[in-house]
């Protein structure tokens, strides 16, 4: 598993044409996460000729079932698509209580701090330290373990 993370970090992280998004951001701030996600599909680059703009990404996005709507403009604006997706999915990251029998049991990040022993977390922090650091994560301190 560590080799897979290292491969991604070495070959993709920091590339101009790759966008890394975090699960935590999607759950805790869906509005901002969605804007970042859609920006790679729709937002044209300022001062870049149309012929050199990325082609096909918006067309690909429009083919997704969650985006296809009867009567929609064939080329929705960023604002229209953002608003539609935000309204349709803003409640997807809300779970009242944890239910181990549901597919969506618990959505908030940090669940491991409640379920793993502090010793286990310390071992994982040490083993994955370089990866956590490269991806912008801070190791969980013992004071954060519930």
Automatic annotation (TrEMBL):
<dbReference type="InterPro" id="IPR027417">
    <property type="entry name" value="P-loop_NTPase"/>
</dbReference>
<protein>
    <recommendedName>
        <fullName>Sulfotransferase domain-containing protein</fullName>
    </recommendedName>
</protein>
